[in-house]
């Protein structure tokens, strides 16, 4: 740009020589003016580009019938301000990416920052005296502490096995619980609607040890079986117990959502094999850390063996980071602590607002329904509340709509069809854990869908 200015200056000098009219001072002023205008033009163009790429378009003139709480109104209003040129962008709520939690962790700043020097985490081993020899003692300590603080699981006299997410632990559990010398694979069942990944994970390697056998409600086969009990359930959020109830059943309790932001903690869970994950407790899905709480020593040994064969342990760096995150969460829960806002109170309130907005949108549209829940006393928060699950199990109530996923896709809302959960396609699962901007845009758009 300065070169351009110099050229302009030269040009005017020549002109000056020719016409002897314009002084050098004038020429300098003109040159500066040209440079400034050029700079402004460039800034203006790049600003337009940024605005264009960031702009999310919302449908206009849509109002919810009653007013949601004031904190939600601010971010809700932000979504409305985005109304640009009438074109709607696609809202993807198909996956359960827990980005809602970013807000809390940004607010907490450096509290969870750790530094890992280059000489650390070289060894495969973490604690050779433990059955789970790759379990970092600091992580195990914080798992035990958090369960005690929240009161959602018994850890005394249980083994902790760490995994690369609870997804790996689920597979380790299937491996450990299946009879090794059976004539046929053991049946794996879960009551529909069940977590959509269970069938595909169970059958992906066509194992000779275990096999997906579908909905537990209709499971009639004699003999041993493994039942997956997800409580609260993904996708519908209801608290669950086993449904098959036969003596030869082996239970795996997936308690990924048994945390007070989602559901009342009514007692410390004390099952034979319980699965937890940071993905849904603290929102750190990308850290890929889960843990199993296991009663039986042989089962804990076999699960450890599976992870040894599969990935020779679990990232130490992630375990150390997870330990720090759990520690900050526990500290935040201690009332005398100056460790910042209680993590569970904060995220509980975020979800309460979101469910409030969703129910208003469903009511305004009149085309959908979501489950109704009964309030229950929560020993952690010390009050009654209704479940506010991480997913909304939404039903398209219009008679002519049989495929709710396609219907919502036509409105540029991406969801997961009920058919993936062993259920009716009139239902879809919608993530409640996305960022405010996306979530608010979603409820606004949903509220504007009326009968055709
Ligand atoms: N179990 C359930 C019920 C889940 O919903 C999820 C995540 N969608 C998982 C397990 C997997 O968790 P992770 O990220 O720890 O593998």
TrEMBL record:
Annotated Alliinase C-terminal domain residues: 91-449
Gene Ontology MF terms in the entry: carbon-sulfur lyase activity; transaminase activity
Keywords, comma-separated and alphabetical: Aminotransferase, Membrane, Pyridoxal phosphate, Transferase, Transmembrane, Transmembrane helix
Transmembrane portions of the chain: 18-40
Pfam families documented for this protein: Alliinase_C
GO biological process: amino acid metabolic process
Cofactor field: pyridoxal 5'-phosphate
Family to which the UniProt record says this protein belongs: Belongs to the alliinase family.
Protein name: Alliinase C-terminal domain-containing protein
Organism whose genome encodes this protein: Dipteronia sinensis
């Amino acid at each position: 740009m300065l070169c351009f200015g110099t050229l302009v200056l030269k040009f005017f000098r020549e002109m000056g020589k020719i016409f002897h009219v314009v002084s050098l001072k004038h020429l300098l002023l003109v040159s500066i003016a040209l440079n400034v205008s050029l700079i402004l033009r460039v800034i203006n163009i790049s600003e337009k580009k940024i605005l264009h790429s960031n702009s999310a378009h919302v449908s206009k003139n849509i109002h919810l019938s009653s007013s949601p709480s004031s904190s939600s109104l601010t971010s809700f209003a932000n979504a409305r301000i985005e109304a640009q040129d009438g074109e709607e962008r696609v809202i993807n709520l198909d996956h359960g990416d827990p980005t809602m939690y970013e807000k809390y962790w940004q607010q907490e700043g450096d509290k969870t920052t750790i530094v890992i020097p280059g000489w650390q985490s070289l060894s495969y081993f973490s604690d050779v005296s433990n059955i789970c020899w790759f379990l970092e003692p600091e992580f195990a300590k914080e798992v035990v502490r958090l369960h005690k603080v929240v009161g959602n699981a018994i850890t005394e006299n249980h083994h902790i096995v760490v995994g690369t997410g609870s997804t790996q632990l689920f597979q380790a559990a299937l491996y450990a619980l299946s009879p090794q010398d059976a004539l046929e694979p053991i049946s794996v069942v879960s009551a529909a609607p069940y977590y959509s990944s269970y069938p595909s994970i169970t059958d992906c390697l066509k194992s000779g040890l275990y096999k997906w056998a579908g909905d537990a409600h209709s499971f009639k086969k004699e003999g041993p079986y493994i039942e997956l009990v997800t409580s609260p359930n993904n996708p519908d959020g209801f608290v669950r117990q086993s449904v098959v109830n036969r003596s030869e059943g082996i239970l795996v309790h997936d308690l990924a959502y048994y945390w007070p932001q989602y559901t009342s903690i009514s007692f410390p869970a004390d099952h034979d094999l319980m699965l937890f994950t940071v993905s849904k407790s603290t929102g750190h899905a990308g850290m890929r850390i889960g843990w199993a709480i296991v009663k039986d020593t042989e089962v804990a040994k076999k699960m450890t063996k599976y992870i040894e064969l599969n990935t020779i342990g679990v990232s130490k760096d992630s375990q150390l980071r997870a330990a720090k995150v759990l520690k900050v969460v526990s500290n935040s829960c201690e009332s005398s602590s100056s460790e910042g806002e209680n993590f569970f109170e904060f995220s509980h309130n975020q979800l309460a607002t979101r469910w409030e907005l969703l129910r208003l949108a469903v009511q305004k549209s009149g085309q959908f329904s979501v489950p109704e829940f009964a309030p229950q006393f929560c020993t952690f928060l010390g009050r009654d509340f209704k479940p506010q699950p991480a997913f909304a199990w939404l039903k398209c109530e219009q008679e002519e709509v049989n495929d709710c996923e396609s219907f919502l896709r036509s409105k540029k809302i991406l969801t997961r069809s009920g058919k993936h959960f062993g259920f009716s396609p009139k239902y879809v699962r919608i993530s409640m854990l996305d960022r405010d901007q996306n979530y608010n845009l979603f409820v606004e758009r949903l509220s504007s869908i009326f009968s055709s």
